[in-house]
């Protein structure tokens, strides 16, 4: 079956512009996560959606970052007034959960490489 | 707060050598889950293994094996008879049961296997 997909695969933008990144999770997966990976570094958690519960936004680095998810489907991560330090690969993951259990494998998409000039 | 440390930033071996990737974690939770992911040059993360904190049994899957030791808060990963295709960045990660479902990643170890 189809895995997690993300678009665009690459995005180059100018400092100060807004960008939207899209994630299509695996069908039926109730949980969706956004992570950021700066060059040569590990992944940093940004935000987590679980079903219809309020999202966990504890990883968002500033109020320029926001994300939405429609039901249990597509999610968009929006970065307003982009800065050069926002340049990174943004990875989306989804997982199926049972009763909110955290131990299920997260399946990752290929990521969106964002470059802010 | 939880933390994962992978002290080896880069390892280079010759094909057929065995190699161990170290992972040390910190958590205050008594229930937690440990993971290893592989990130090949293509960039997509590939799940390798998950362990929960109540299961210290070591696991072997083909050339891969994992050594989980709660006494030293370590979850090390060994590749036996390494192959060029094993070249990738490997990440160790942790989920705490009482801290949400997000993965906390270590900084990764870049493994280069030379022919």
Would you write up a description of this structure?
The complex is a heterodimer of chains A (117) and B (115). By secondary structure, chain A is mainly beta. Helices cover 0% and strands 45% of the residues of chain A. Chain A has strands spanning 5-7, 10-13, 19-24, 31-37, 43-50, 65-69, 75-79, 88-95, 107-108, 112-116. In chain A, strands 2, 4, 5, 8, 9 and 10 form a six-stranded mixed beta sheet that branches. Chain A is globular. Chain A starts with a strand and ends with a strand. The mean pLDDT of chain A is 91. Chain B has 115 residues and is mostly beta strands. In chain B, the strands form three sheets. In chain B, strands 2, 5, 6, 10, 11 and 12 form a six-stranded mixed beta sheet that branches. A four-stranded antiparallel beta sheet of chain B has the order 3-9-8-7, with no helix packed on it. Chain B starts with a strand and ends with a strand. The A-B interface holds A 31, 33, 35, 41-45, 48, 50, 56, 58-59, 89, 91, 93, 95, 97, 100, 102-103, 105-111 and B 4, 33, 35, 37, 42-45, 47, 50, 52, 91, 93, 95-97, 100-108.
Q: Strand content of the residues of chain B, in percent?
A: over 45%
Q: Tell me, what's the shape of chain B?
A: globular
Structural class of chain A: mainly beta
Q: In whole angstroms, how far apart are the ends of chain A?
A: 37 Å
Shape of chain A from CA axes? globular
Write down the overall mean pLDDT of chain B: 93
| Rounded mean pLDDT score of chain A | 91
The SS-based structural class of chain B is: mainly beta
Enumerate how many helices of chain B there are, as a single number. Answer: 0
Uncertain regions spanning at least 5 consecutive residues of chain A: none
pLDDT < 50 stretches of chain B = none
* Succession of helices and strands of chain B: EEEEEEEEEEEE
Order of helices and strands of chain A: EEEEEEEEEE
End-to-end Cα distance of chain B? 41 Å
Show the largest interface.
A-B, 28 and 25 residues
